Amino acid sequence: MSVSIRCRLGILVSGSGTNLQAIIDRIESGEINAEIACVISNKADVFALTRASRHGIPIVVHENEKFPERRLYDAATVEILRGYNVDLVILAGFMRILSDVMVNAFPHAILNIHPALLPSFPGLHAQQQALDYGVRFSGCTVHFVDYGTDTGPILLQAIVPVEQDDTEETLSSKIQKAEHKAFPDAIKLIIDGKIKISGRKVLISE
Ligand code: GRF
What we know:
Blueprint: E1 7-13, H1 18-28, E2 34-41, H2 47-54, E3 59-61, H3 70-83, E4 88-91, H4 100-105, E5 110-114, H5 126-133, E6 137-144, E7 154-161, H6 168-191, E8 195-198, E9 201-204
Parallel strand pairs: 1-2, 1-4, 2-3, 4-5
Antiparallel strand pairs: 5-6, 6-7, 8-9
Helix pairs in contact: 1-6
The structure holds 5-O-phosphono-beta-D-ribofuranosylamine.
C-alpha cells in the first residue's frame, strides 16, 4: 500500500506574488500534492496577500521593522511556520536574507528562486547586473537556501535569451515567465521524492 502525505508549504513573500500564484495554480490543478499552510509577508498591503486570501489561504503579516535584529525576526518566523506545521518553506519573492536561525530550523527544506543563472549575478538587481555584463543568456535558478546569499545547492535552472534591446523590465518579465514553470516544477520534484542532495549537488531521479 502506498501512502501519500500532503506536504505543507509555508510561502514567504514581499511583493506581487506572481510566483505564489503559479504555485497555487499547480496545486489546484492537482499536479502538486501539497497544501499551502500559510503565506507570510514581511510587508503589509502587498498583492501576494490578496492572491492568497482569494484562494482561502491563511495569511500572516509579519513586519521586520518591528524587530531590532534579523535573528529575532527569523526566530519569530520559525515559530509561525511551526504553528502551521510547515514541512517545506518557499521564498517566493521574499526580499530578506535569512539568518542561521531559519536555515538551522529547516535544513534542506527552504527553497528560493533567483532571477539569474547562479552563481552569476547573486543579490539584488540580478537582471540589471546581467544586462550590464552583456551576457547573451540569463534565466532563473531554483536553489536550496544555505548560510550564504544565493549560494545553496541548485535544483533547477531555466535559460532565457537576452536581446540587445532588452531593458531591466523586459528581461525581468521574460525571466518571470520561466520562473512560473521552474518553481512549481522544483517543488513537485521534492514532494514526489525525486531529489537527493549530495554536497553541493542535487541529484534528480527519473
Ligand atoms: C521574482 O522575480 C524572483 O526571482 C525574485 O523576486 C521576484 C518575485 O516576484 N526573487 P513575484 O512576487 O513572485 O511576482
